[in-house]
Amino acid sequence: MKILVSNDDGVNARGIAVLNDELSKFANTMVIAPDRNCSGASNSLTLVNPLRAETHSNGFIAVNGTPTDSVHVGISQLFDGTPDLVVAGINHGANLGDDVLYSGTVAAATEGRHMGLPAIAVSLAGNEHFETAAIVAAKFIKRLGEHPLNSDQIININVPDVPISELKGIKVTRLGHRHRAESMTKTLDPWNRDIYWYGSLGAGLDCAEGTDFYAIERGYASITPLTVDMTAYRSLMPMTEWVNELKL
Asked: What number of other Cβ atoms are within 10 A of residue 216's Cβ?
């Protein structure tokens, strides 16, 4: 198996190194990731500046762009042949519920799917036990030969920050939902100019049984299939009836 490995925390992040170490035990891997932390970059592209790729001494390739850029240039220009799979992570922190809309990790996986490849995003709900998340991801990937991913979906994996011996198991989940994030904070820079910082993520709002929040809080890894098609199908008929009543 040939795997393109990327992330949004940057090419020097610990999570991507641990993930690559685990996957390279059974697959040919190539790491192509942003040259800096791009958390929260979502699916953004670099359109007005040229992209450059620099190979580090460990063989990892740094791209001066976003996670989406890294996967796109990796597949189209840098990978030897075509990868069988794109794996993004291991993210430093969970990507649960609404997080998937902002996550550069999920976006890297989504770009792999947009380019016709099966793709997986992997996140750790913390910053310590990356090996646990790597093992869960590897076990899932090894079964893809028996159960290929649907062509219109990616897989979002979140793993609690515990040793593998304390992991309760794996749950297939749906996305939960967060409370509104805390308000932005206004402060001053050293030159007495206004600056603004985003507040903390909102706590879980929809954390019911069956959600990714519920699984992580109870010590289980969460596996959520995400659809790339964002159409609100249940609204099509009501919206059609409403629009048909408009008078032009």
From this structure: 25
CB 29 within 8 A of CB 40: no
Phi, psi of 182 (to 5 degrees): -65, 155
Distance of CA 141 to the CA centre of its chain: 16
Query: Where do the domains of the chain lie, and which CATH numbers do they carry?
Result: 2-178+204-244 (3.40.1210.10)
122: β partners: 157
Residue 18 three-state SS = helix
Length of the chain: 248
Token pair of 203 as six digits: 């706590």
pTM of whole model > 0.85?
Answer: yes
Which two structure tokens, joined as six digits, stand for 37? Answer: 């932390």
pLDDT tens track for 117-160: 999 999 999 999 999 999 999 999 999 888 888 878 899 999 99
Helices 14-23, 130-142: axis angle to 10 degrees equals 40
Question: What tokens appear for 98 in the block?
Answer: 């609404």
pLDDT digits (tens, 9 = 90+) for 23-44: 999 999 999 999 999 998 988 8
| Cα(41)–Cα(45) distance, integer angstroms | 9
